[in-house]
Design a protein that fits this description.
This protein is α/β, with parallel strands linked by helices.
């Protein structure tokens, strides 16, 4: 008979030891300030999760460059000004043996923030988004490489802040998930067409080569690795 797994048992997830099987999934909290910094309310909420005994906390999705902001009051992680405030919270979590995982995302045409910032709205192809009505600018290969670099820099920054892992948001219609589906992706280069090409910008190894055993939790594929110090 298969051994029954219990919620309060310790376990091991892709190299990350966790004290129990309670995982707080990533949700948009709407509590960050206008530049995406932590507020007292948002910090208090995460501390309450730690105090309640949650073993692993996934943050709400954070935008990793200003043009990738997906929603109002969304947390950000696009430069080093965010590192110290998160480190203080992560230190608190680690003191209670709780793991912290940063979710990183890029909004694209799903965000509906085009009227709030001056940046181009990118997409894999110039396909009108049926939810927001936005037709994005089709990305050049250089645009894609720049976004890949931005995600990689966020992963390095997360390690410096002390996060135990990152989760790549490649679902819910945001930019990375648009590359995965032929509904939005009409490309004929290395980033479109076949089932092997469409995930290329999500799964490319060099994007996440921050350290040996560097962390990725991919929201689409749940390929779990861990950020080693």
């Amino acid at each position: 008979m298969m051994q029954q797994k219990r919620l309060f048992e310790k376990t091991h997830a892709g190299g990350m030891d966790v004290k129990n099987r309670f995982v707080r999934s990533a949700v948009w909290m709407r509590w960050a300030d206008d530049r995406g910094h932590l507020t007292p309310g948002l910090t208090h909420f995460y501390r309450k999760l730690v105090d309640g005994g949650v073993g692993t906390i996934l943050t709400g999705y954070t935008y990793i460059e200003p043009s990738g902001k997906a929603n109002f009051k969304q947390a950000a992680f696009y430069d080093d000004s965010y590192v110290d405030e998160w480190r203080e919270l992560i230190d608190y979590a680690h003191a209670h043996d709780t793991r912290m995982v940063l979710q990183v995302a890029y909004g694209g045409s799903q965000s509906g923030m085009d009227k709030e910032h001056p940046y181009a709205v990118f997409g894999p192809s110039a396909v009108r988004n049926p939810k927001t009505g936005i037709t994005p600018v089709e990305m050049t290969v250089a645009d894609i490489k720049e976004r890949e670099h931005t995600f990689a820099e966020a992963a390095k920054r997360a390690r410096r802040a002390g996060f135990d892992g990152i989760e790549v948001h490649a679902a819910h219609g945001y930019l990375l998930s648009q590359f995965l589906t032929p509904y939005f992706n009409y490309r004929t280069d290395d980033y479109g067409g076949s089932i092997h090409n469409r995930p290329r910008c999500v799964s490319c190894n060099h994007c996440w080569d921050t350290e040996p055993n560097s962390c990725i939790l991919n929201r689409k594929h749940l390929d779990v690795k861990v950020l080693k110090k």
